[in-house]
Automatic annotation (TrEMBL):
The active site is at 337 (proton donor). GO terms for biological process: lysine biosynthetic process via diaminopimelate. Specifically catalyzes the decarboxylation of meso-diaminopimelate (meso-DAP) to L-lysine. PANTHER family: DIAMINOPIMELATE DECARBOXYLASE (PTHR43727), GROUP IV DECARBOXYLASE (PTHR43727:SF2). It comes from Algoriphagus kandeliae. This is Diaminopimelate decarboxylase. Homodimer. Keywords: Amino-acid biosynthesis, Decarboxylase, Lyase, Lysine biosynthesis, Pyridoxal phosphate. Pathway: Amino-acid biosynthesis; L-lysine biosynthesis via DAP pathway; L-lysine from DL-2,6-diaminopimelate: step 1/1. Pyridoxal 5'-phosphate binds at residues 227, 365. The modification N6-(pyridoxal phosphate)lysine is found at residue 57. Residues 33-275 form the Orn/DAP/Arg decarboxylase 2 N-terminal domain. Substrate binds at residues 307, 311, 338, 365. The keyword Lyase applies.
Length: 410
């Protein structure tokens, strides 16, 4: 077994000891991996004035946000709550981009009051923003570039029929609205989707913005969004970040030179920064043979990791407790009263009751999409940093589950 592929320790701390100390199920994050992913983007784009705005929604624990701030990135937030988490984590509001989709105007006002840049996602919002603030508050415009890209339909958001952004075909109306309301447009933004492998897609998105940018003389930045694909198993291809860096940086430099602009280039990676840094540790409660399938039932399910159910996402699984056992094929399933298959047809070293299984690529959209379905409690989170495991979120308790319920007496 390749221990690099299936680590038994993180930064020298054994996953078994972390499981013993903090209990299961448990999300464990490798802080060094997050920082090294940030560094690889910075290196790939070292020829341009780059700003990374981490997509908070991927993993929004405040300690993770602090770590990311410390590494020199800002954040992209999609709710006023994420904005507030960012401020709580110490981000200067000017380092926060607020990219909402169809929220109430009171949320927009709250963000402006907090000093955060708003990414305008519709023409009605541009008008309302213009009426309220005129040119007093700089804003960004989210363009829908009509590019179909992304790992699956649910995470493809830059195509013609997507709810996100303002269609590039409506550019004349965007320009007219900016003029009519004297809007102060500091940035243009695209985000075409998630799990995008092909560097050309990022270039196409950027080119749409460069073309549109000719109409906005006061622009300060171009935001090319996120969506870089990571590998979900051995041999799975990942976005070549250096290729994206080379292609987009060159086009960016050419644009700036040709039009005499001095702009910043912003990116909003989520998965790329945190997916591979996360390990979800669960315990095998039962190994159940049926006439057709051997199931491993674990002490978790779609309530803690919904990606396999929602997107048919593949997450690699390994047996931490019995790495040298004889191989068998299993369906790893959750305890939720739904068919919550976490991993189907996986060949694993023999799984015994009580074994710890590790689900990989659990850093992005794992805990942040967890719920209390079946009235289950959400797990704890641990960050390994400087060779030490730190609890960064306590396990939920039954009291947490009921604390907001108002009980009527009958
Ligand atoms: N910027 C914007 C405006 C976004 O909407 C997103 C993700 C990102 C950046 C970051 O994309 P990333 O680099 O993480 O691919 N829950 C799904 C992914 C949904 C992504 C939504 N928007 C999943 O687990 O695959």
């Amino acid at each position: 077994m390749n221990l690099n592929q299936h680590p038994s320790e993180i930064q020298g701390v054994s996953l078994e000891s972390i499981a013993r100390e903090f209990g299961l199920p448990l999300y464990v994050y490798d802080g060094e991996k997050i920082v090294s992913q940030i560094r690889s983007i910075q290196e790939a784009f070292s020829d341009v004035p780059l700003k990374i705005k981490y997509a908070t929604k991927a993993l929004s624990n405040i300690s993770i946000l602090k770590l990311i701030r410390n590494a020199g990135a800002g954040i992209d937030a999609v709710s006023i709550e994420e904005v507030k988490l960012g401020i709580m984590a110490g981000f200067d509001p000017v380092e926060i981009m607020y990219t909402p989709s169809g929220v109430s105007f009171s949320e927009i006002e709250e963000a402006v009051k907090l000093g955060v840049m708003v990414n305008l996602d519709s023409i009605p919002l541009m008008k309302q923003f213009g009426k309220q603030y005129g040119n007093q508050v700089p804003a960004c415009i989210r363009i829908n570039p009509h590019i179909l890209a992304g790992g699956n339909a649910k995470i493809s958001v830059g195509h013609k029929h997507s709810k996100f952004g303002i269609s590039i075909e409506q550019l004349p109306e965007i320009i007219a609205t900016v003029a009519a309301y004297d809007l102060n447009i500091a940035g243009l933004h695209v985000h075409t989707g998630s799990d995008i492998l092909d560097a050309e897609i990022f270039l196409r998105g950027a080119n749409v913005l460069f073309e549109a940018a000719k109409n906005f003389p006061d622009l300060r930045f171009i935001d090319c969004g996120g969506g870089f694909k990571v590998a979900y198993k051995a041999g799975d291809p990942a976005t070549d970040i250096r290729e994206v860096g080379d292609k987009v940086s060159k086009a960016f430099q050419d644009f700036c030179k040709e039009y005499g602009r001095s702009l910043e280039l912003w990116l909003e990676p989520g998965k790329f920064l945190v997916s591979e840094a996360g390990y979800f540790l669960v315990e095998a409660n039962v190994v159940k043979e049926t006439p057709t399938i051997t199931f491993v039932g674990v002490d978790s399910g779609l309530n803690h990791l919904i990606r396999p159910m929602l997107y048919d996402a593949y997450h690699d699984v390994y047996n931490l407790s019995n790495p040298k056992g004889g191989n068998q094929s299993y369906h790893v399933v959750g305890y939720i009263c739904e068919t919550d298959t976490l991993a189907a047809d996986r060949v694993l070293p023999e799984v015994r009751q009580g074994d710890i299984l590790v689900i990989k690529n659990a850093g992005a959209y794992g805990f942040s999409m967890a719920s209390n379905y079946n009235s289950r409690l959400r797990p704890a989170e641990v960050l390994v940093w400087n060779g030490k495991a730190h609890l960064i979120r306590k396990r939920e308790s039954f009291e947490d589950l009921v604390k907001n319920q108002v009980q009527l007496e009958f």
